[in-house]
Amino acid sequence: MNEELKQIIEKVQALYFKYGIKSVTMDDVARELGMSKKTLYQYVSDKNDLVQKVVTFVMERDHCEFDNIFEKNGNAIEELIEMTLYINKIMKNHNPSTIYDLKKYYPNLYKVMMEKRRDKMFQHTINNLKKGKEQGIYRTEIKEDIIAKYTTILTFQTFENDTLDMNEFTSPDFFNEVFSYHIRGIANAKGLEILEHNLNKITENK
Questions:
Q1: Which of 82, 111, 119, 152 has the most other CB atoms within 10 Å of its CB?
Q2: Is residue 132 part of a domain?
Q3: For residues 54 and 16, what is the distance between their CA atoms, to the nearest angstrom?
Q4: Could you report the per-residue pLDDT of 144-201, keeping only the tens digit for each?
């Protein structure tokens, strides 16, 4: 992706995240970018193509960020804290109407996006569990495959829940309780010491 197209995609992404996809027309996009629709169509063929490029850009950016987190040399628990804080940041900027529009008007694209996100999260969770075992901070008897599947399912169901509103879901208290609940189920005594030492990072994220 060249720099000009990247800048266009970033600005359109901001529009979609703020107003949703359905209500943002190509005229709105051209006006926001300060260019004619004729010029805009030199970069994308139509709105479907534009939405496809925006979704692909967001997925690749998020996956790259997750990869960077997991490539660091920290311990497995600190790694999970960074990953969950990043997800929390994404959710704070989340507009439910954007996901609703994507799911309703671009179902195939939505399906691909969710499948890739689930696969990525599952693999990262597996790798984190193995890393924690190797570092001697997770219980050796836990079964990575089962925990990773359960965590992935639970996370995506939470995203689409009707019980919590977004402020509750992204609050430090909610994050603290759920994260601690998860770590206490997989960590040994050494891991729990690391957890207690790092819980302040959650409080600082208020």
A1: 152
A2: yes
A3: 9
A4: 999 999 999 987 876 666 666 666 766 778 877 888 899 999 999 999 999 988 877 6
pLDDT tens for residues 90-136? Answer: 777 778 899 899 999 999 999 999 999 899 989 999 999 999 999 99
- Structural domain containing residue 174: 58-203
**C-alpha closest to that of 152 among 170, 125, 128:** 125
Written as one letter, the residue type at 2 is N
Burial 76-112 (b: 16+ CB within 10 A, else e): bbbbbbbbbbebbeeeeeeeeebbebbeeebeebbee
Crossing angle of the two packed helices 3-19 and 26-33, in degrees rounded to 10: 120
Instruction: Give the position of tokens 């490539």.
Output: 71
The sign of the CA dihedral 161, 165, 168, 169 is positive
d(CA 41, CA 61): 24
Token pair, residue 74, equals 């920290």
